[in-house]
Specification:
It is a single chain. This protein has helices spanning 2-37, 58-74, 87-100, 117-125, 158-172, 191-204, 222-235, 246-258, 274-282, 293-308, 329-332, and strands at 47-51, 77-81, 105-108, 129-133, 152-155, 179-185, 210-217, 241-245, 266-270, 287-289, 316-318, 326-328. The protein is α/β, with parallel strands linked by helices. The strands form 2 sheets. It has a 6-stranded parallel sheet with strand order 2-1-3-4-5-11, sandwiched between helices. It has a 6-stranded mixed sheet with strand order 7-6-8-9-10-12, sandwiched between helices. The longest helix is centred in the N-terminal third of the chain and has 36 residues, at 2-37.
Length: 341
């Protein structure tokens, strides 16, 4: 009996040892798999990913040109992931890029600043440096401080942009009382556009001589701007100032010209494309809100790469430091547009 109990105890110890060895082996295998998908160690940046609005978008292409410029400077590879303006596609692309383990830094130009939050959290957890560019992450459009610790933001607050457009409208109205203003909002379905529009309205309301007679959706194409301006001119033939995206104002200019009011109605565009800059310099437009987007893309990539290298980087960078955004003819100086519509 004693011999049997001894053998049983010995067999039990042997079984436990075998089980422990198996657990160690499985754990090691899992660890090896995780390590293969992990980003490179800090200081060894080999590749960065740019998640832009869409490859066909001229603004995103300007950002991409800046990203590539910085990538060449640091001798790292860069890839443009094209979601074609689809927010969910963009989120999937970010998640897929995390899984590959190929990229040490992300520059994200979000189509939806809220939708990308879970993916950004995943990237940060995977020790990938993340910089949001142009579109704020989250729902606070009055600040450039990102809501997630560990990431950075390069751009400006849409509310600031709206306030500046409103002030330009007030300048254009100088000497007119009343001065009738029409604002062509981008997309009423976008929270970012709604925040900008509200800022424009509040700023215009601070001037006693200014009256906002129309707030319609103008979109971001010449065609949508043309249609919106035609509707405005039909309903308010006495309009004095029209404000909207530069693309929409290019279309609005056609409507104003067709109505025989070119030079009588002051036009203000939001965005410093080569068309907008040329229109301001020629005197056809009163002003344009200028964005040095290629420079912004270069700055975003620089911060992302340096963060991935383990260097201390700013939490946010105000792109108004790159170029005075108040693009009146007087202020433009020698500024050269960094993208064309």
């Amino acid at each position: 009996m004693k011999g049997t109990r001894f053998l049983n105890r010995r067999a039990s110890r042997l079984a436990i040892a075998v089980l422990a060895a198996a657990v160690v082996a499985v754990t090691s295998a899992i660890g090896a798999s995780a390590q293969s998908a992990a980003p490179a160690q800090k200081g060894k940046v080999k590749a960065i990913a740019f998640f832009g609005f869409a490859a066909a978008n001229s603004f995103a292409q300007a950002t991409w040109a800046g990203v590539q410029q910085t990538a060449r400077k640091y001798h790292v590879q860069a890839k443009f992931f094209d979601p074609n303006f689809n927010a969910q596609t963009q989120v999937s692309q970010i998640q897929d890029a995390i899984t590959t383990g190929r990229y040490q830094a992300f520059i994200i130009q979000a189509n939806d600043g809220n939708a990308v939050i879970p993916a950004i959290k995943q990237a940060l957890k995977a020790h990938i440096a993340v910089v949001a560019e142009f579109t704020p992450v989250g729902s606070n459009y009055a600040t450039i401080k990102p809501p997630l610790r560990g990431m950075s933001f390069v751009g400006e607050a849409p509310v600031w942009n709206g306030q500046a457009l409103g002030r330009l409208g007030i300048q254009a109205c100088k000497g007119l009382d009343p001065c009738n203003v029409a604002y062509l909002e981008g997309f009423k379905s976008l929270p970012l556009d709604n925040a900008r529009t509200e800022a424009v309205k509040k700023t215009l309301a601070t001037a006693k001589n200014v009256k906002l007679v129309a707030d319609v959706e103008g979109g971001y194409t010449q065609a949508s701007g043309l249609k919106a301006a035609q509707d405005v001119l039909q309903a308010h033939p006495d309009v004095n100032v029209i404000i909207g995206s530069s693309q929409a104002i290019e279309g609005a200019e056609q409507a104003v010209k067709a109505a025989g009011k070119l030079g009588q109605i002051k036009l203000i565009g939001n965005g410093g494309s080569c068309q907008a800059i040329a229109a301001v310099r020629s005197g056809r437009w009163f002003a344009a809100y200028v964005i040095a987007e290629r420079s912004a893309g270069a700055k975003a990539a620089e911060i992302a790469i340096q963060a991935a290298m383990g260097k201390k980087v700013p939490v946010s960078f105000d792109t108004r430091k790159l170029q005075n955004p108040i693009g009146t003819k007087k202020n433009l100086g020698n500024f050269k547009a960094q993208y064309c519509d």
